[in-house]
């Protein structure tokens, strides 16, 4: 919604940059809040669950975070919290999140800008880019599927 509104208000490029920066800032704030406030409480009760999460995301943190951010499904807030509670490298996580957010923000800013201008090509391009992003996300997911589900082939 933020990217759509930013695209409507500021145009495609400025809207994309503003929305991506806002999403990355929210990611960092949530990550560090979890790291410095929630971590001790969560580790006391759920250290085994945190270990599972760490085992997945500690290796290839940048690539895996980028792939997760490209997927148009999931809960970004929960991922930020879990990463902050876990022993995940903040720099890799936040920078991969920023880059991973960028394509989605561009798609929605393009749609918002297209609505403002009633530009059917921009709305159509946004829809095509959404499909391309989903296909690329699926391809990357299949590449790392064994990391997500080690007991399956």
Automatic annotation (TrEMBL):
Q: Which UniProt keywords apply?
A: Cell membrane, Membrane, Transmembrane, Transmembrane helix
Q: How is the protein disposed in the membrane?
A: Multi-pass membrane protein
Q: Transmembrane residues, as ranges? A: 12-34, 96-115, 121-141
The reply to whether Transmembrane figures as a keyword in the UniProt entry is: yes
Q: Where found?
A: Cell membrane
What is the top-level taxon of the source organism? Answer: Bacteria
Which InterPro entries has this protein been placed in? Answer: TMEM64 (IPR015414), VTT_dom (IPR032816)
Q: Where is the VTT domain?
A: 3-113
* Family listed: Belongs to the TVP38/TMEM64 family.
By what name is this protein known?
A: TVP38/TMEM64 family membrane protein
Please tell me the species this chain comes from: Thalassotalea psychrophila
């Amino acid at each position: 919604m933020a990217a759509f509104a930013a695209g409507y208000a500021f145009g495609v490029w400025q809207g994309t940059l503003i929305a991506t920066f806002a999403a990355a800032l929210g990611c960092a704030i949530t990550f560090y809040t979890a790291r410095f406030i929630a971590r001790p409480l969560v580790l006391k009760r759920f250290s085994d669950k945190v270990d599972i999460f760490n085992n997945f995301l500690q290796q290839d943190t940048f690539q895996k975070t980028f792939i997760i951010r490209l997927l148009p499904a999931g809960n970004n807030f929960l991922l930020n919290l879990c990463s902050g509670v876990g022993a995940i490298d903040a720099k890799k996580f936040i920078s991969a999140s920023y880059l991973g957010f960028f394509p989605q923000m561009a798609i929605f800013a393009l749609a918002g800008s297209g609505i403002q201008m009633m530009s059917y090509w921009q709305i159509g391009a946004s829809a095509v880019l959404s499909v391309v992003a989903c296909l690329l996300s699926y391809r990357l997911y299949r590449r790392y599927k064994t990391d997500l589900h080690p007991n399956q082939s």
